[in-house]
Amino acid sequence: MLGDIVELSVVVRDLDAAIERYTRVFGLTVHRRAESEEFGFKNAILPTGIGHIELLEPTDPAKPVGRFLARHGEGVYLVGFECEDVPTSVERLRKHGVKVDHRGDKDIAWVHPRDAHGLFVELRHREAYD
Questions:
Q1: DSSP character at residue 105
Q2: Which of the residues 18, 86, 89, 90 could staple to 102 if both were Cys, CB 3.0 to 4.6 A apart?
Q3: H/E/C letters for each residue in the chain?
Q4: Beta strand pairing status for 120-124 and 100-102?
Q5: What pTM was estimated for this model as a whole?
Q6: Helix or strand or coil: residue 73?
Q7: Contact in structure between 7 and 80 (CB atoms under 8 Å)
Q8: What are phi and psi of 116, to 5 degrees?
Q9: CA 77 – CA 85 distance, rounded (Å)
Q10: What is the pLDDT of residue 4?
């Protein structure tokens, strides 16, 4: 069900400072930047071979990324695993009593951290960085 790790999301206080550090120190480049009002963050995607690091700066302290930063400080927020069949995997997880957020129109799902020993798990397809 779980394939390669294809995403590592890191919550940061200052997106621009984090981008500068990750590009200078690790030699990564920014593939794209965006903002999600729905989820309350600004982000940058930095490819790393088969996957990417996503840097997240909260824009709304009341939404999950903002609450994470307030409770835990900067650090790893989410690990995304390649999953070839998200709907079937979601069904299997739910049969095991796992809380999964899956929006049927999207091929992506999230496992609640309480059901993964504190790790926010994402099931997704591998992304292309062309």
A1: T
A2: 90
A3: CCCCEEEEEEECCCHHHHHHHHHHHHCCCCCEEEEECCCCEEEEEEEECCEEEEEEEECCCCCHHHHHHHHHCCEEEEEEEECCCHHHHHHHHHHCCCCEEECCCCCCEEECHHHCCCCEEEEECCCCCC
A4: unpaired
A5: 0.91
A6: coil
A7: yes
A8: -140, 35
A9: 23
A10: 96
The pair of three-digit structure tokens given for residue 32, joined into one six-digit string: 């794209």
**Bridge partners of 109?**
102, 123
Q: What are the tokens at 25?
A: 């120190």
CATH of domain 5-124: 3.10.180.10
Vertex 96, ends 92 and 101: CA angle to 5°?
Answer: 65
The three-state secondary structure class of 2 is coil
pLDDT over 90 at 33, yes or no? yes
- Spatial CA neighbour of 41 closest among 81, 77, 5: 77
- 119 near 125, Cβ under 8 Å? no
Residue type at position 67: R
Whether the CB-CB separation of 120 and 110 falls below 8 Å is answered with yes
Contact call for residues 13 and 69 (beta carbons, < 8 A) = yes
Q: What is the pLDDT of residue 98?
A: 97
